[in-house]
Amino acid sequence: MRKPAIALSPRAVNRVRFAAILGVLGPGLVSGFADNDAGGITTYSVAGVKYGYELLWVLLASQVVLFFTQEVGARLGLATGQGLTGLVRERFGVRWVTFLTITMLIANVGSIVAEFAGTAAALSLFHVAAPVSAAIAATVVILLITRGSFGKVQYLFVFVGIGVSLAYFASALMSHPDWGTAFHSLIVPSGNPSAAYWLTVVATVGTTITPWGQAFIQSYCADKRLGPEDLIGERLDVGLGALLTNLIAAFIVVACAAGLWSHHIVIDTSSPTAVADIARALAPLAGEGATVLFAIGLLAASFLGLGVVPLTSAYAACEAFGWETGVDWRLRDAPAFYGLIIFFIVIAAFFVLIPGLPLVQVMFMAQVVNALLLPFVLVFVMVLASDKKLMGPLVSGRFLQVVGWGGTGLLVLLSITLAWSSFFAPA
Amino acid sequence: MLYLSQAVGRPVRDQHGEPIGTVADLIVAIGDRYPPVTGIVVNTNGREIFLHWMSVTSLDADGAVLGTSAIDISKFQQRPNEIRLKLDLMDRQIVDIDGRKVVRVNDLRLDEVEGSMHLVAVDVGASGLLRRLGIEGPWRTIAHGLHRSLPERYIDWEDVDPVERTIASVKLRVPHKGLAELHPADLATIIDQLSRSDRVGVIVSLDDEAAADAIGEMEPETQVDILEDLEPGRAADILEEMDPDEAADLVADLSDESREEILGLMEKEDADEVQELMTYDEDTAGGIMTTEFVAVPATLTAAETIDRLRDLEPDAETIYYVYVNDTEGRLCGVLSLRDLIVSKPNVVISKFMFGEPVAVRTGASQEEVTEVVARYNLLAVPVVDEDGRLQGIVTVDDAIDTLLPQPSKRRLPRLFSRSGTSDR
Predict the structure, then answer these.
(1) CA distances from A315 to A46, A248, B171, B277 (A)
(2) CA-based nearest residue to A309, from A354, A275, A340
(3) Does any CB of chain B come closer than 8 Å to the CB of residue A222?
(4) The CATH number of the domain where B208 resides is what?
(5) Do the domain assignments include residue B413?
(6) Statement to judge: residues B188 and B119 lie in one domain
(7) Do A12 and B90 touch (CB under 8 A)?
(8) Are B323 and B190 part of one and the same domain?
(9) Any CB–CB contact under 8 A between A326 and chain B?
């Protein structure tokens, strides 16, 4: 006869449940939040300042695509317990994984350059020269990562980021936006044949759906040892992450549209004063303090990206080539891993040293590069996720396959439109 | 010497030199020290056919030559101990037993051993990667010009353990012999680097005791994952082999259903012990104690006590101390192994035992226990209930765990941290 189950001390039970919730509600939210990095804030601002409410439909569309790409990434991680590059290596061999890794690394170095441009732009509001801020940022981030304290500090960046996002909510509400136009633009896509318009569309998509975000969500799910039974929780997490990211993005656009664009303020993104101009979108809330508030937000977002993107890149490269990855290794045990991180950071920091670099333009263009390289990454993701033998019960069904390939196709189409418009359309 | 990557894709010719296809894969039989090649997979017009190694006259970087023109395309039966090198091993993760880590296969090295071709080593170095990319030659020239050599790293097949993969075309039935011989802490480190399904594969291949030892060395959240992924009967067997205090901590972390199921499948005696330990709060003496100790009645003689030690308690965590109970079952003394051995065999132990043993209550905090152990220089401290009855012992290794600040155990970027339980 079985004994009646013995009551556990309440602590033990609570801890397990709490862990189960925290364990699943995580990667999607973190990845979604890190999406609104320096490049994100800047690109959304530029979109709002230049085109007012017109590009809100792009946000809605990219949120849908973001959800499905993150979902499939999470599903790959849950089903296989491996990262993206590891799977590509096993399925397609050394050559393809080298191609994929190099593609991702180019996009990621672009993103890291954008993060450095973000710190430089933020500190330029306090009259700190770009080389100085790049040197400071690089040193701080390398120390945080190699000494293992980035994990703790990242929450500080996240919280500051949330604070500044709330400031955008408030500013948007206080600057009396034209809600009717905003909702209309959100749902009805607008067309505009100019090259600059499509460039902004591509940058907006590129800052929302990123190659590193794709690698990140999968590695995170695999590394947390989540399993197929966590699918529902993970979908919820990914959905919330995508929703939150785009809600913040939408309010940045609305704040910039209502605060700047509707007053016919024109911003030249390649001028050195562009950062200060963009910061004025926060003026309804913060008044004269808008610059400081924006600088703090941009700095926190840049630092979050500066930690997450190099870590994800090094992780992907190490997994592709079978070198020791970060978890559980110290600096001297995983020289390739830490070496790569330092390499990415230093290369990107040097880029920012170019004198007279238009920082806002750099952040913006880095997102365009991300968007153009993204389809190459997604093709691998979609092929892997349709492999029954690999995925087992988590294989993409017909609906998810159609949506996945459809999203990938749309991104390709977008790149073609951009290329076409930049050659044939009025500027 | 031949690398698999040099052979794959090369032409296969019959004895008259007529091309019939290309080399798609090689088959080896696992089990020997160096697995012999037993077959070849030939791609002919997009179709794969299998040929026995007997029909191959030669294989090198120029391709394969067959000794026959009559190809027997009768259906090939892959035997359980046979694996396809390209499909099942190339680019996969393997365990480097000597280096105690998980690495990826860049290439496979084949050699003539006693007149036939064998798989001898796994190439995990940069030169293997460059060869696969088809740029080994240029790099070698550059390196030579700089008076350097390309970094080459091979792992002898003997030091390799292929990771069991559910997605492999065949389920490898490889006995993880090498792994089982590792120290449990090293084994735990290796298993920790594997993906979730691979870990279970490795654990399943170990015997219960080795599995219990390895699991005991892992992080709590990893232990839970593994136990819940294992078949419940097997999980119960492994738990029975673990120290009851460890088992109780682990069982407490399982989900409600798994806990019920696994406890029900354990032997009653072990399950009761675990359940009893689970009633204590984790941070108290009761929570960290083990019930595997030696206690004898005060009326025994030294010789009888030594006999008892031999017979009854081979499992006890420590036998350096033998605890002595009075007729009511209360702790009344303690003997060291030394006392027992040096005393005359027929002396009753109550005559020479230490009559005022230091003990802690089950509800004592972990810090108190640590302090007692440190102050009296004990290897283990007995834990008693309100009536003074011996319930268990806390060994010094469990007591000092509290002294280690948790963060210092892992000093890494926690971006890919895998837990909400790291507060433990």
Answers:
(1) 32, 28, 29, 41
(2) A340
(3) yes
(4) 1.25.60.10
(5) no
(6) no
(7) no
(8) no
(9) yes
Tell me what the mean pLDDT of segment B151-155 comes to: 82
Q: Kindly report, residue by residue over A361-382, the tens digit of the pLDDT.
A: 888 888 899 899 999 999 999 9
> Which residues touch A363 (CB under 8 Å, ≥6 apart)?
A38, A39, A42, A43, A114, A117, A118, A121
Q: Which of A65-69, A88-92, A359-363 has the lowest mean pLDDT?
A: A359-363
Q: Which of residues 343-382 of A touch B (CB under 8 A)?
A: none
Q: Would you give the distance in Å from CA A329 to the centre of its chain?
A: 26
Residues B29 and B139 in one domain: yes
For residue A89, the model assigns a pLDDT of 92
- Which one is predicted more confidently, A58 or A23? A58
Closest residue in chain B to residue A391, using alpha carbons only: B167
Query: Is A204 buried (19+), middle (13-18) or exposed (0-12) by CB count in 10 A?
Result: buried
Q: Is the dihedral of CA A292, A294, A299, A301 positive or negative?
A: positive
pTM here? 0.75
Q: Is the pLDDT of residue A5 over 50?
A: no
Same domain, B305 and B241: no
Q: How far is A390 from chain B (nearest CA, A)?
A: 6
* Six-digit token string for A50: 């230049």
A225-245 confidence digits (pLDDT tens): 677 777 888 888 888 888 888
- CATH at B314: 3.10.580.10
Asked if B90 and B4 count as a contact pair (C-beta separation under 8 A), the reply is yes
Task: Mark whether B108 and B192 lie in a shared domain.
Answer: no
∠ CA A118-A124-A128, nearest 5°, is 120
Domain boundary among B216, B245, B279: B279
- Optimal mutation site among A9, A101, A156, A223, interface B, most CBs of chain B within 10 A: A9
Its domain, for residue B14, covers 2-159
Q: How far is A337 from chain B (nearest CA, A)?
A: 11
Does any domain span residue B408?
A: no
In a domain, B217, yes or no: yes
Cα–Cα distance for residue pair A76/A405, rounded to 1 Å: 16
Q: Are residues B124 and B181 in the same domain?
A: no
pLDDT in tens, B363-413: 888 888 888 888 888 888 888 888 888 888 888 877 877 666 544 333 333
Domain count, chain B: 3
ipTM of the complex: 0.75
pLDDT of residue A12 exceeding 50? no
Which domains are assigned to chain A? 27-424 (1.20.1740.10)
- The 10s digit of each residue's pLDDT in A404-413 is 999 999 999 8
